[in-house]
Specification:
This protein has 184 residues and is mostly beta strands. The chain has a single domain (3-172), classed as Jelly Rolls. 11% of the residues lie in helices and 42% in strands. It has two helices and 14 strands, in the order ββββββββββββββαα. It has helices spanning 157-163, 167-179, and strands spanning 3-4, 8-16, 21-28, 32-33, 36-37, 41-49, 51-57, 82-83, 94-101, 105-108, 114-118, 123-131, 135-139, 145-150. The strands form three sheets. It has a six-stranded antiparallel β-sheet with strand order 1-2-3-12-6-10, with no helix packed on it. It starts with a strand and ends in a 5-residue tail after the last helix. The model has no long low-confidence stretch (mean pLDDT 83).
Length: 184
């Protein structure tokens, strides 16, 4: 269940499906600005190392983003963003911006809309609650595109395989975390 995404790796430390929660590490390899997005679940994040700039958006501004189209699974990443003609993304405006650093924590509701500018070498501990919805949207406010995030059970095997963290890559992440004093 560990995954590798373009800017960071997700390391699952505990999968409590029977209790509807998961504990994981997010290990950022590069500086990255995430687009305004929601999550399918509420979560708490605790910063172990590094920092990021956190932006919360006015949720009401996203109220006119439609439900995902029937072919939304074709639009599951930034390279295949959907231009949603009915979505006025200019209404999505930041309402709060602040810096997160090692030792800081925050909790985010699944309906919240946020973005982060994450510094390279940032590590956060995530306590993820149960999925509250099947899909969450991501908005590229600069270019106007929207794409969708689905849970693992709704992703195709090809996509699951493509983002799976190999054992070799996981060993590399663990070695890196040890060298930084995050794990023993």
């Amino acid at each position: 269940m560990c995954e590798s995404h373009r800017p960071f790796d997700k390391i699952v430390l505990y999968n409590g499906d029977e209790r509807n929660f998961r504990v994981r590490l997010h290990v950022w390899r590069a500086t990255e600005f995430e687009r305004a997005h929601q999550h399918r679940f509420s979560f708490t994040a605790h910063m172990l190392q590094g920092q990021y700039h956190h932006v919360l958006y006015d949720r009401a501004g996203a109220g006119n983003v439609p439900e995902p189209p029937k072919d939304a699974r074709k639009h599951m990443d930034p390279d295949h963003a959907d231009r949603v003609p009915d979505a006025d993304l200019t209404r999505i405006q930041p309402v709060l911006e602040y810096e997160m650093k090692a030792g800081d924590s925050y909790t985010l509701h699944h309906d919240a809309l946020h973005a982060t500018l994450v510094s390279a070498q940032t590590v956060s501990l995530i306590l993820r609650g149960p999925a509250e919805k099947d899909v969450a949207f991501v908005a590229n406010l600069d270019e106007g595109g929207v794409y969708w995030r689905f849970g693992r059970r709704d992703e195709g095997e090809e996509r699951i395989r493509a983002k799976r963290l190999t054992r070799e890559a996981l060993d590399g992440v663990i070695a890196d975390l040890r060298s930084r004093g995050i794990t023993a």
